[in-house]
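Workshop exercise sheet. Pairs work together: one partner reads the sequence aloud, the other fills in the structure field after running the prediction. Swap roles for the next sheet.
Pair: D.N. / O.F.
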Amino acid sequence: MTQVKNSILSKGDVINNTYEVQFFIGQGGFGEVYRVKHKYLGLQVLKVFKEEYSQNTDIVTLVQEAKILSNLTHNNIVRVFEANEFTKDGKIYYYITMAFV
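Structure field:
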């Protein structure tokens, strides 16, 4: 997996003392996606929203959508586990974690 030169996270970074970044998966218009290891629950995917996206988005709405998705279980829907934030280099980043499929 190729790491983006100016990516938000790097292999080995630990987020909120819970998620250890294993590797960069990819990126899109909204954010960057990483495979992480939750310290108790195993492999998950962590999507970090890009700073530009977070600044132009209603975070309350984003969290509400994540909350709704976290309650859905269906074979065709990726399970959402958490919506939260962390600080790195003095910047606040928002993220959601999902099942690794």
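Discussion prompt: The mean pLDDT is 90. What would you look at next?
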